[in-house]
Amino acid sequence: MTDRVLAIDGGNSKTAVLLVDADGKVLAQVRGPGAPPQTVGMKRGLDVFEALAREAAAQAGLSPDEPIASHTAAYLAGADLPREEEDLTREITKRGWSTTTFVGNDTFALLRAGTASGVGVAVVCGAGINAVGVAHDGRTHRFPALGAISGDWGGGGQIGNDALWHAVRAEDGRGQPTELLPALLAHYNESSILKVVEKIHFEEIELDPHALCPLVFEVAANGDAVALAQIERLVEEIVLLSTVSLRKLDLMNEPVDIVLGGGVITNTGDTVVGPVRQRVTEMAPLAQVRVVDVPPVVGAALLGLDTIGAKPSAELRLRSAYDDHLPAATTTVGAAASG
């Protein structure tokens, strides 16, 4: 079998699967819904991944009875603790997609996507927030990233929930006046935020905090103090994640990359990145803060290519496929989550 890498970037809101050969050539890419096994259940989550992996194999012209790849590199949101990585590795190995399998947290894929060596710090802020660091000698630093119980704050869900919290308190008098209130009323097409709360309570409407997150940035752009305070807290949290990781790995005075990714960061221009860059470089002057410029699934594929001992030219070839746009082989599988 020709060496191939099956790369999986499993996020909370979407899953990306990339199949590449040992030379870095993109054979297929498929995208589908998010299905973190810790959230949707192990079987259902892996069924989603398998549907996407099989679609990628078919797209690449592989026979249904041959292994999809020699190595599977799966970097998944929710794989936050070693026990979870071990469980996922065992269950994915049973699926028989490849000869060898490695499962890690998706922030490692983000770091590899944004660096040539995989050394530095990556901070992802999408549905949630997390960070990892890797030193030159291979030492790693990471956070449990289990939410409030492990000291976390941030991510689209947190920001959206806080927006509703501030709007309720603005309406009933416990909090400061804020333009978040009329913004959320318009979003829900209601005249009172307490009516919104009541409907959420009785499950007549769904609370989707991720949909509220962009409203915070829109309101902040108009100078609203409450919304600006939320963004300021997010900036501070990203700076903390970055600099704590640098400090733990003795990288504060090293010329390393800090790679930022996730929808909350990449979809808000310089609103977050600019202040983060300024504050981080004040403390770690040699660090380079950058936003990832290729999809994190490319980082998963690169880690897989590292594992099989691919030549440096494979990385160049893979990255070149993303210079202007996604490879033409990309398709979207939207029904996988219903399996």
Automatic annotation (TrEMBL):
InterPro entries reported for this sequence: ATPase_BadF, ATPase_NBD, Euk-type_GlcNAc_Kinase
PANTHER family per UniProt: N-ACETYL-D-GLUCOSAMINE KINASE
Signal peptide: none
Annotated ranges, domain ATPase BadF/BadG/BcrA/BcrD type: 8-304
Protein name (Swiss-Prot/TrEMBL): BadF/BadG/BcrA/BcrD ATPase family protein
